[in-house]
Write a structure and sequence with these properties.
This protein has about 425 residues and is α+β, with helices and mostly antiparallel strands. It has one domain: FAD/NAD(P)-binding domain. The chain contains 12 helices and 21 strands. The strands form 4 sheets. Strands 5, 6, 13, 14, 15, 16, 17, 18 and 21 form a 9-stranded mixed β-sheet that branches. β10 and β11 form a beta hairpin. The longest helix is centred in the last third of the chain and has 29 residues. The chain is globular, with a radius of gyration of 22 Å.
């Protein structure tokens, strides 16, 4: 048999793909990992100093995700620009129901964090420079063919197309490249009939490290604390859900008018909205793949699922799935099995499925129940929010879901070291 060019090929070097590559470098360092990324990458182009931008897009990281990044050795760097969420306030506009979560009630420093995507990417790239992970960038995975020894992946680099062989392909390029569909994976999509408008906003009062989830008759919105990790500032990251018609109308408004419209929807809990930054938007859909593995290929991250952003569960679910996959790859290497064996990939699927199902159901139910303005439902919602605030068991369950510690948390497997092997033999 001809030796493959590499052991594992990762299509996509974004947050999911880069995190998987780093976790494998930490836990299975003997593996040859190749990341194929469309964006040009150069170690020389990484800035030494990071200057946060007001318009930087960000990601909500649960407490469970912070623990995973701790295990990867990445959290000390990430935390330099990660704003803690110490309180969560969930309310229904125009109704009395509300619930409040506090980190101190759970003996934690924070319920979660908000980190700029660009900063997370820089931290991952800097960490990966010290590993054996190989990059093909700019390049794109076009197709994959199963072989007797694993897979052959067709990639395009510039004007040239060439084959790259390996044991397994992991698709981590999101759901928009078309690679998932080209490989024959079937998606299920539920349209929420809304769009997410994403922007950073400033308010006259500080956020006090509080994340707000506000449900309104026109759709849910979230405001997450953003800016300094050390001082409660006046900047928040906004996720605002709007119908097609409402989105078109809002985009035509001046910044001042946008702030006024936002004020009407959110209220005055943060004082007056004084500034709104660059707005981006995308249609909201619940996209899932029932069978995210096939012989020689696995889907992860947004390629495997896309959730409503208001609940803040998408990347955190993906991160737990990545660690489950790393566990199975570590086991496969220890047992001398190919990474692309269907039994290996199905073990990953089984290990992640319950978490996947519960998180998808939690996120989708939250949006569908609170996204309805029918009077009978609003009464049930109010009672439910009051119940969450008053019943310790229910509130603890909700908090653990929000913190990403509601179920089994996969750990990053430790690679055997020479010292640990000597210790084991001496015992």
């Amino acid at each position: 048999m001809t030796a493959p060019d590499t052991d594992l090929i990762i299509a996509g070097g974004g947050l999911a793909g880069a995190t998987l590559a780093l976790a494998l470098a930490r836990a299975v360092p003997e593996l040859r990992v190749t990341v194929v990324e469309t964006f040009p990458l150069s170690p020389d182009a990484l800035p030494e100093d990071y200057q946060p931008s007001y318009d930087a897009r960000s990601t909500a990281l649960s407490w469970g995700s912070r623990l995973i990044f701790d295990e990867l050795g990445l959290w000390p760097a990430l935390s330099e620009h990660a704003t803690p969420i110490r309180h969560i306030h969930v309310s229904d506009r125009g109704h009395f129901g509300a619930t409040r979560l506090h980190a101190e009630d759970h003996h934690q420093a924070a319920l979660g964090y908000v980190a700029d995507n660009r900063w997370m990417g820089l931290c991952l790239m800097r960490a990966l420079l010290d590993t054996r992970v190989q990059w093909r960038a700019p390049a794109e995975v076009l197709d994959m063919t199963p072989t007797a020894d694993g897979v052959e992946v067709l990639i395009r680099e510039g004007e040239q197309e060439r084959g790259l062989t390996g044991q397994c392909l992991v698709v981590a390029d999101g759901g928009r490249s078309g690679l998932r569909e080209k490989l024959g994976f079937v998606t299920r999509t539920g349209n929420y009939g809304q769009n997410a408008l994403i922007a950073n906003v400033s308010t006259s009062e500080s956020h006090r490290f509080t994340a707000y989830e506000r449900f309104t008759g026109a759709g849910p919105m979230a405001l997450l604390p953003h800016g300094s990790p050390f001082r409660a500032e006046n900047q928040s990251a906004l996720v605002w859900t709007l119908t097609d018609e409402a989105l078109a109308e809002v985009l035509e408004l001046s910044d001042e008018e946008k702030c006024q419209r936002l004020q009407e929807r959110f209220g005055w809990r943060l004082g007056r909205f004084t500034k709104i930054g660059q707005c981006s938007h995308y249609p909201l859909k619940l996209t899932t793949v029932d069978e995210p593995v096939r012989p020689g290929v696995a889907l992860v991250g947004n390629a495997a699922h896309a959730l409503h952003p208001v609940a803040g569960q998408g990347f955190n679910l993906a991160l737990r799935g990545l660690m489950t996959l790393v566990e199975q790859f570590r086991r496969a290497v220890d047992e001398g099995r190919s990474l692309g064996e269907l039994t290996v990939l199905r073990a990953y699927q089984r290990g992640h499925r319950r978490d996947w199902q519960q998180t998808v159901q939690f996120s989708d139910s939250l949006i569908r129940i609170f996204g309805q303005s029918l009077p009978p439902l609003t009464s049930v919602r109010d009672a439910g929010l009051v119940g969450l605030d008053l019943v310790p068991g229910a509130k603890r369950w909700f908090a653990r879901k929000a913190m990403g510690i509601g179920g089994r948390r996969p750990a990053v497997p430790s690679a055997p070291t020479a010292a640990s092997e000597e210790t084991r033999h001496d015992q």
